[in-house]
Amino acid sequence: MLEPLLIAELVALGLVTGFLAGLLGIGGGMLMVPFLTFILHHRGVATDLAVKMAIATSMATIVFTSLSSVRAHHRRGAVRWDLVVRLAPGIVLGAALAGAGVFRVLQGRWLALLFAGFVAFSATQMLRGRPPAPGRRLPGPGGQLAAGGAIGFLSGLVGAGGGFISVPFMTWCNVAMHQAVATSAALGFPIALANGVGYVWSGWNVAGRPPGSLGYIYLPALAVIASASVLMAPMGVRVAHALPVRTLKRAFAILLYALAAAMAYRAWSG
After folding, report:
1. 29-67 pLDDT, tens per residue?
2. What is the number of structural domains in the chain?
3. Which domain does 80 fall in, by range?
4. pLDDT at residue 217, as a whole number
5. CB 191 within 8 A of CB 96
6. Interior CA angle at 103 toward 32 and 182, to 5°?
7. Which terminus of the chain has a smaller tally of CB atoms within 10 A, N or C?
């Protein structure tokens, strides 16, 4: 049974991450992981396990948030479904490999540092604001399969919906920013679903998990955060389509830097 204060904190976290999922197509995972790590550690879960459970629970919420977000983006005709179809097979393969295999053997501290490093790199690429070469296009089917595999694998390791990789990748290939955000939201569903199955399997017999855990996923937090985030994601979508592209990119980059710094600090102070 969750305490009323903890429920309120999780509802607030769900509302904020749902809004950001719709606004930036990031699934909200990069915000949830640091906070859930703190919450689980405060409840007596060992730091290494708390990081893994925070990542897994964060990813599981993206299953629900992405559906709400992509529905709103689709109504505006912003989702590039052709890209979703070509990237999704690689994403599922990469996510399954990360969630069911590599994730279990890595230490939580190294996962946190990996998380911080990739988020900071993505922020730098976005903030530089250099226009891509006019002739650059997305790679062919083989290249998109490989790109999807990298997005799914890295997302599975750090518990994010892939937007911190897929949005910079698509804009680098001259996909319009609003379309990149919307398509990233759609890609969040296969990423989260494949990884979620892997997290349940790899964490099934791990000792030290709190009551209410399914593998590495902490079900009470999942239920509260997912319920709140689904309600707020459409509002984030409306704001995203009202903002100028340059403002949207800066907001994306600033958020990523803040989250990278917070997670790196927690990893070193572990």
Report:
1. 667 777 888 888 888 888 888 888 988 898 888 888 778
2. 1
3. 4-269
4. 93
5. no
6. 45
7. N
* SS3 annotation, the chain: CCCHHHHHHHHHHHHHHHHHHHHHCCCCHHHHHHHHHHHHHHCCCCHHHHHHHHHHHHHHHHHHHHHHHHHHHHHCCCCCHHHHHHHHHHHHHHHHHHHHHHHHHCCHHHHHHHHHHHHHHHHHHHHHCCCCCCCCCCCCHHHHHHHHHHHHHHHHHHCCCCHHHHHHHHHHCCCCHHHHHHHHHHHHHHHHHHHHHHHHHHCCCCCCCCCCEECCEEHHHHHHHHHHHHHHHHHHHHHHHHCCHHHHHHHHHHHHHHHHHHHHHHHHHC
pLDDT in tens, 87-132: 989 988 887 777 665 655 565 667 677 767 777 876 776 677 666 6
Percent of the chain with pLDDT over 90: 7
First to last CA, the chain: 27
pTM of the model: 0.71
